[in-house]
Amino acid sequence: MIFNSITFLIFLPLVFIGYWSLKKKPVFYQNMLLLFASYIFYGWWDWRFLGLIAFSTAVDFFVGKKINSSKSAKTKKVYLFLSIIINLGLLGFFKYYNFFIHSFEEMLGAIGLNFDTWTLQIILPVGISFYTFQTLSYTIDIYKGKIKHTDDFLSFAIFVSFFPQLVAGPIERASHLLPQFLKERHFNYQDAITGVSLIAYGFFKKIVIADRLAIYVNSIFLDIQSANSISLTLGAVFFSFQIYADFSGYSLIARGVSKLLGFDLMVNFNRPYLATNIPEFWRRWHISLSTWFRDYVYIPLGGNRVSIVKNYFNLMIVFLISGLWHGANWTFVIWGALHGSYQLVYIRLKSTFQFNKSESLLMKIANIILVFTIVTFSWIFFRADSVPQAVEYLNKLFDFDFSFKLVQVCAEKGPLNLLISIFSILLLYLSYLLPKNLKFKKEGHSILFITITILLIILIGINGEAEFIYFQF
Q1: How many CA atoms lie within 13 A of 88 on its CB side?
Q2: Catalytic annotation present for 339
Q3: Cα–Cα distance between 396 and 315 in angstroms, integer?
Q4: What pLDDT digit, counting tens, does each position of 38-64 carry?
Q5: What is the tens place of the pLDDT at every residue in 275-288?
Q6: End-to-end CA distance of the chain
Q7: What is the pTM of this model?
């Protein structure tokens, strides 16, 4: 089930009405309904996925209790390793088995050795990368003594499978989200209005911006040879905005739906294309994943409290793993390596030159453009289906064919779609003028915002039930 579907538009009101009709009952009944709804939501893709998420839930609930109750540090570590091995083992099998087998076969072929391998027809469970990291953070935090385990299996099961953020995050920490399932919730009208505003804004980003830009981007990547440097540049720029609007739109809808049910999710994006350097970009982009890798990979490796060479190594490892987390393809590994390299170059430049923190507005704008440019370059590998396709894209891009041929520039969809795409990006930047958390001072402003957003979706958007990009991860 996806947010931008008729099914979900029926599903959500039913859950909302049923959920708040139980507000006078013990919280157990609301939690039961949430778990039932979450499993229906997740099982809508393939009911076989339910067994996997139920197994992962049971393992980490059991491990959390054992870590918390064990007196021996060695026993605690054994249980922690059990959680890590099972969770990463499942993720590795379903997501990376065929990738590593094919890569091993190609490596042997490159040195003249023929090796017959066999692959499996494996269905990638939706959202497995997200809920695997979420449950891992629970057991790791218990091991580190940051949180206590819970004896409430029902609440923990909802924490793992909470449908608004199950398939594409944000990746929540147990310390923030789990306690919200343990306490009573009371309907708050202002929170509900804020929730609807977030949902409307999320659909605006997805339908009006991302899906519209996808039409142009897809046409470019499907026929690179017919494009020139102008259309290829536009294709890369449009994809930068497409993936941002698509993923941040999902996060907004997830936060909005959660607000309707009385829950608070973390902010996952903070206007990343206004970043003036690469580290700042990663503090603004996919914040839940960035902080996860910081806390559970980078810092345990030693972070920046080690030698410069070791720090460089730690950063590169984090970004290579981050790239691989996004997908079983060498294009994602290269994407991660590029961002790791950007980090190293920035650190080196920062240590060599004295950056002026009170830089002029003109310099800030120049830095924003520079960061956006190198991030956009990296997105070409992220979007490409294969490394050869990415290389083909770059070769054509750097032909420097800037002859203005309307057919090439507009791609196959014509000038109207190109103009609407550019207009949608302008709307995105105009939306930055909205209050940061869409908490309007006057109720009428919220209603006006929701109304205008819905009208824009009707007038500009609606291109079918396009899946969110991050569903594939």
Answers
A1: 11
A2: no
A3: 32
A4: 999 998 888 888 999 999 999 999 999
A5: 999 999 999 999 99
A6: 16
A7: 0.89
